[in-house]
Write a structure and sequence with these properties.
This protein has 279 residues and is mainly α. The chain is 65% helix and 5% strand. Strands 2-1-3 form a three-stranded antiparallel β-sheet.
Length: 279
């Protein structure tokens, strides 16, 4: 265990690591003076400033080298030694909680996303027509979602027909964003608390894949991300070749989102069922 000392109020945070590589990563961040800004961004927000009745709060983080050395020594000693998750009731409880979320909430949300994608696909031609009619003449590409939403907001203000298809599209993206945040909170964060020494290499790989899949889809849904980065090959035939530069990235976000969320759901199944007797 590596202790991180935060000077404000003399707080001490104990940060746990699963591997020597993780310890080295923290040391590298500290050397580059990136740890303090990281904790600043995580801990200090408007609500905290309001509660403390201050305008500004600056955190200073220091690593205790003796704690680092002790952590490295311990990690070297236990490196490669596996732990049976059945001996860790808290981790078993975490996994069971994640599975309940998957059963009671995620499964229904995945089905809802299926339905939203099917509805979008059903009305795709109307959506494309409305968007094309609303865009400036001779516009041959959409840079990002921010530009699209700005243009559509203006068009909605003029009372253009068919705007319900655009609103449905945007609400689908909003649903997807919320769902990915919930996956972060109810799947990825709890699983991150389960030590790697309880997992097989395959389980560690699945856990990393869930995290990267979620992060990538969240990145694609950001208003500033270039739409050309989103391409769903299975839908290329739904758009005329000459219009793919304009529309392909835009329409790909919906099926891509469904694919990514479904992948996470499947990976979670694989991860959890490889703990025999826990689920």
């Amino acid at each position: 265990m590596l202790s991180v000392y935060v000077c404000v109020s003399g707080g001490v945070l104990a940060v746990c690591f699963d591997s020597l590589a993780a310890i080295k990563d923290m040391q590298a961040l500290f050397t580059k003076q990136q740890v303090s800004p990281m904790f600043q961004a995580i801990v200090v927000d408007k609500a905290l400033l309001k509660t403390m009745k201050v305008r500004k709060l600056t955190l200073r983080v220091r690593l205790w080298q003796d704690e680092v050395d002790a952590c490295v020594t311990e990690m070297t000693h236990i490196n490669g030694v596996k732990i049976d998750i059945h001996t860790r009731p808290r981790d078993v409880e975490l996994l069971q909680t994640v599975r309940r979320y998957q059963r009671d909430h995620l499964a229904g949300d995945v089905q809802k996303l299926h339905d939203l994608e099917a509805t979008f696909d059903q009305h795709l031609s109307e959506f494309l027509l409305v968007v094309k009619r609303s865009l400036p003449q001779r516009m041959d590409s959409l840079p990002n979602l921010k530009e699209f939403q700005t243009t559509m907001t203006v068009a909605m203000g003029t009372g253009s027909a068919g705007m319900e298809h655009v609103r449905n599209y945007l609400s689908t993206l909003d649903f997807l964003r919320v769902l990915l945040e919930q996956i972060q909170d109810h799947v990825l964060f709890p699983l991150s608390l389960i030590p790697a020494r309880c997992e097989t290499e395959k389980q560690q790989e699945w856990k990393r894949a869930m995290k990267s899949t979620c992060a990538e889809m969240q990145r694609l849904l950001k208003p500033s991300t270039a739409l050309k980065e989103a391409t769903f090959k299975g839908w290329e035939g739904k758009v005329l070749p000459r219009e793919r530069t304009l529309f392909m990235g835009l329409i790909s976000l919906v099926p891509l989102g469904l694919e990514k969320v479904s992948d996470i759901d499947h990976l979670l199944d694989e991860y959890a069922t490889n703990f025999p007797g826990v689920i």
